[in-house]
Amino acid sequence: MDLKPSPPNRLVLLAPAAGTAYIVLWWIAEAGHLGNAPLGPIVAVVPFIAFGLSIAISQRWPAAALGLIGAVLVVQLLVESARFGNTSWPAYLPLLYALFNISAFGSHVVHWISLPVSGLYAVIVTVLLTLRSFGAAEWPVLYSPQAARDYQNGGEFEVVGMFAAGCVIAVGLATGAWCAGLALRMVTKVYSARRHAQALERDLAAVEDELVALSEREQLAQEVHDVMAHSLAVIAAQADGTRMTDDSLAPSTRNALSTIADTARDGLTELRQLLDSSPLLGEAERPKLTDLQALLDRVRGAGLDCEYAEHGESKPLSPIQQLSVFRIVQEALTNAVRHADTDGSTTVTLDWRGPGLALLIATPASATGATRPGRGIRGMQERAQIAGGWLTAAVDEGDAFIVNAYIPVDEPTRLAVEAVA
């Protein structure tokens, strides 16, 4: 498929400027001769305007420019007052620039049609400049004074030789302009092909980097799976083994060991789903807001005093947003279990009274550890950003570690979720 070449941005105004200058300059140059035309200056100035217009549009609309040049030449053949005289015949020369643009920027069909058509136009111009019947007072435009004197003295006017020489020159100039356009066309195609090749190389390099990164992630995921799966399995086994074999354990200790074993098994299941199957869990496997109570119960079973509050009427969240909220709460409670004071109480609050979900998790901060930034806080912030919101984590004036997040609920998401529901 051959695409129509486009002129460079820096040259896009060159043809309109050249066409405008052509009209203005030739109008000024021929101002004293236009009024002598038999049909008035309007007919005499039409070829200048039409040729200037064809030059102006030769880059943008090459086919129209080629047709307009031919139409003007036909008019000059038919209308004597529209023909160029001894002083204005060089006005044909700037048309070579229009032929150059037509060859360079025309479509595939226009480009090849313009070659024979340009030759035909050159012959028509030669006819207008050499044949007696097309010249002023039946004299051709291009003639020598000696030839005119010889003709007046009874000699013959060598019109055949002059016509042949004019055709060779005119056709040669038109062909040269077309070949120059062809050269620019080929250079443009080579440059475009080189640019596409460079873009393809960059894309291939980017794909190669992505493949390397994916390979490294796959290896890392396998290592994480091996290490964490073994650790979680050992934790669950030891918790269950201790609970079942030691009859002297208090009921609260047994409940704690049971919670430890269940949590380890749940973590092992999620880890296998995440690393072994696919990074994107199925919708039925994704944790939802309704799973928060089970998460809070496990945390309470681990010995952390945790309170839950919800204000306002809940709004539908997308599965990704629900997963993000669940993971944020899960990470915050994990940090609370690791760093909070043993006698402190953690509060999880969901507030739906705004345009979205405002999430607040307050944990009494210990003197060490809880406020240091790490992967957990960065992970929660990334989760909030994925859900379209934001998250902050800091210690307030009351020495409590506050995780504050906001998840927006826009109208298209709400309608989509309700439609699915």
Automatic annotation (TrEMBL):
Keywords: ATP-binding, Coiled coil, Kinase, Membrane, Nucleotide-binding, Phosphoprotein, Transferase, Transmembrane, Transmembrane helix, Two-component regulatory system. GO terms for molecular function: ATP binding; phosphorelay sensor kinase activity; protein dimerization activity. The chain crosses the membrane at residues 12-29, 35-56, 63-79, 91-113, 120-142, 162-184. It is an enzyme of class 2 (transferase). Residues 216-276 form the Signal transduction histidine kinase subgroup 3 dimerisation and phosphoacceptor domain. The keyword Acetylation does not apply. CDD domains: HATPase_UhpB-NarQ-NarX-like. PANTHER family: NITRATE/NITRITE SENSOR PROTEIN NARX-RELATED, NITRATE_NITRITE SENSOR PROTEIN NARQ. This is histidine kinase.
